[in-house]
Structures
1.
Amino acid sequence: MAIEILAEAAGRELPESDPGDLLERAFQRINAAIFAYNMDNALNAGTTLSAALVAESGRCWIGTVGDSRTYIVTPASVWHTRDQTYVQDLVESGAISPPAGRCSTRGRTS
């Protein structure tokens, strides 16, 4: 469901739309579709999604939601997007240490 909505948005809105705005609108539509599906089927389903739009110039826009990461690798560096998890929030708030986050039974960070 998520991929279909994202692909439809990209096909309809690129190249006229700002890529960051396109990702935001698509992610909002995906969230609404999953919410409606859950309501219609008495479920509590969710999804994780990482998506990147890359211009011919090489400029990149990234959208992520959930406990997925997007890794960006260049000749000079490697970095990743932030996890959107309960455990990552605990680490960032100082409630638990990074090593405790990596070993947590409630999820993991790295």
Note: DSSP finds four helices and four strands in the chain.
2.
Amino acid sequence: MKKVIQRVFPSDQLHERLADLRDLLKKYFLVVRSHDDQGVIAPYTASFYPKISLAYKEVNEIHINIDSPPDNDVFYDWRGSVYRDDDAGEPCFVVYVNERFAGLYLLRLRSLYATDWSHDWECVRLAREVIPRLISALGLKPLTRAEREKIYKTYKTLKSNPLRITVGGDPEFEMWRGSTLVSADDYLNMGGSIGTDGARSQVELRPAPGTPAQVVRNLRELIKEFARRFPKYDLDAAGHRYPCGGHIHIGGIPDREPPGELLELLDDFVGKPSLPLSGEARGEYRRLSAWEDKPWGFEYRTPPAAVFSNPRVARTVLKLARNLVTKFYSGRALEYNDPPGVEDYIRVGGLTEREAAYLVEFFRQGVPRSLRIRAAWGTFAPEEGLAISFRDDWLPERKRLFRKVLVKNLRRGEIVLYGLASSRGFVATIPGVPGAAVLDDPPYAPVNGQGRVWVGLPWRLRMEEGVDETLLREAAEVVARYCRQFFRVSRRAR
């Protein structure tokens, strides 16, 4: 089946009684719409009862009072999802009619997004009083013919002034030491080029944007830096334990938000074929047309981390995304097979024959149990060493103290420190913890079949405020001595 995608200027959508307001609005706006479900914020638009999501920055308020208010409240009905953000929001004038919220005027885009002014004749009657006074308060001038032609020309084709589309990404990976999964927030903060994602369990790499080749080089350097900082650990893109996204950043587009047609194009060439590579943990994040607004453009959130699992696929996917966005904004109609084949990736996606064949085959492979990153990106394999993971609730400073003591005393091995419920009392699964009784029936075997040592500790040592640090340090030393018997070489014996 063939499909055609083309960027076109939005047309009027005259639901309900909007036709009765068109004469007042079309002098100042190119497009007038009512009950718009597209969710896209466009320039030079007057839209009533729109389904939008917007962070706004209030620059000023406009208050318009009418002597004959409507008989019902439908005029003020609103289904937009908006919130105030005075740091990064879209600059707006907030419009009030008879001291009730009635809409937002977006200064940068010269667009009005308002409540249900066109619902019925009573609402239209009120709106015909409001609109001239609003136009006057905003100081708007009718659009000239030259202005209209210039806007249409800019919107429909950008061939004479090509866009400089940039790409980037912030792929998420699980952090492993051998067969032990660890939580990234035990080692990293949220900020920086190597940090944790919002859930804090995954490692998120944030290479600087640029061309596809530049992004791949920047990402390789971050992976090398990770290897230097954590030589005994690896990253994994499979995402079976934690959800791992392969978000693609798109910068330099002229729209405030990505048009639905552009998202459909990205879905067809990238999203749909890559979604089956999502790990078992991706859950609700596994969906098409997922995106987030960003100051530099938007983040396409549909792909999984697998599209960053090696430099070849990362460079190819980033090149494909940039080419699709650039061609979409050229204004040309893009015709292709649905689903796309190799020839479509070449003709529409702008890939070479070799790149297209490789990418199509990569998408077909399915998600493996593991997608280790360091070897795939040409960095040295993790050293054998000490892996410490924490289960259940811990105060961050308690994690740091126990980790510091264990690292000082042990050179290698896998240790899991987990929590015992407060209802059990002051107990531990190993002897010698100051003041703690030994639990007779621990929930985990002290040593499992892979040689991993499990130690359960009481709630008080993990979470209670005000515990003496000397007691905590002594408990950590006890854990280190207990674990040492299972590992052949201690750090002190070197």
Note: The longest strand covers residues 53-64.
